[in-house]
């Protein structure tokens, strides 16, 4: 992959009722090329809309890939990868770092009625998770806009040796945590 190829990493850091969503534009040579923020509701259904807002705010035509940290940030505020792909137009890859039996049992435990139905409808539309080896680590990916083999190549291309976390997601996670801390401290100091 060319060193100037850019990916947007999206990660979320939960607050009490609002989660900070950060987008980090990172080149394949690990150069950070932009940051953007939005928020979504903890336990809500607006995470996909927040990613779409981040894409609109960035308005970057040089992005070739979008990497999401998982699909259920902010206490089951699900990313709809198909909707994000529709807004983005290029491959969207969700990366998770732990083996799982899936979200359905947890969704059924935490929600009921319309709230459960809405989340299950989004969850069931998502592509299956595929195991990807990255160096000595294993991650699980879901991909829209490319096949699983290509998704694995994308993840490996953006992951430094010795790290199982793609750099766009690592930077986005750091930015989301810093943004949440800033919002929390600013809110506390203004009271």
Can you give a write-up of this model?
By secondary structure, this protein is α/β, with parallel strands linked by helices. 40% of the residues lie in helices and 28% in strands. The protein contains 7 helices and 7 strands; from the N terminus they run βββαβααβααββαα. A 7-stranded mixed beta sheet has the order 3-2-1-4-5-7-6, sandwiched between helices. Strand 2 and strand 3 form a beta hairpin. Helix 1 packs parallel to helix 3. The longest helix is centred in the last third of the chain and has 23 residues. The model has no long low-confidence stretch (mean pLDDT 96).
Element pattern in H and E = EEEHEHHEHHEEHH
**What's the overall average pLDDT, rounded?**
96
* Biggest pleated-sheet summary: 7 strands, mixed
Q: How far do the termini sit from each other?
A: 49 Å
Range of helix content: 40-55%
Strand order of the largest sheet: 3-2-1-4-5-7-6
CATH fold-level label: archaeoglobus fulgidus dsm 4304 fold
Give the percentage of residues in beta strands: 25-35%
What are the low-pLDDT stretches, counting only 5+ consecutive residues below 50?
Answer: none
């Amino acid at each position: 992959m060319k060193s100037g190829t850019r990916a947007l990493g999206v990660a979320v850091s939960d607050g009490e009722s609002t989660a900070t969503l950060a987008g980090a534009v990172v080149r394949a040579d690990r150069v950070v090329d932009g940051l953007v923020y939005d928020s979504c509701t903890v336990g809500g259904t607006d995470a996909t809309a927040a990613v779409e807002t981040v894409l609109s705010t960035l308005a970057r035509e040089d992005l070739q890939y979008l990497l999401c940290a998982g699909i259920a940030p902010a206490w089951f505020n699900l990313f709809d990868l198909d909707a994000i792909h529709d807004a983005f137009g290029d491959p969207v890859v969700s990366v998770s770092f732990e083996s799982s039996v899936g979200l359905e049992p947890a969704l059924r435990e935490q929600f009921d009625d319309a709230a459960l139905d809405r989340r299950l409808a989004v969850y069931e539309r998502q592509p299956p998770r595929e195991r990807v080896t990255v160096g000595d680590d294993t991650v699980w990916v879901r991909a829209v806009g490319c096949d699983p083999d290509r998704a694995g190549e994308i993840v490996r291309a953006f992951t430094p040796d010795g790290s199982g976390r793609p750099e766009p997601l690592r930077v986005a996670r750091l930015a989301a945590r810093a943004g949440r801390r800033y919002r929390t401290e600013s809110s506390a100091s203004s009271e």
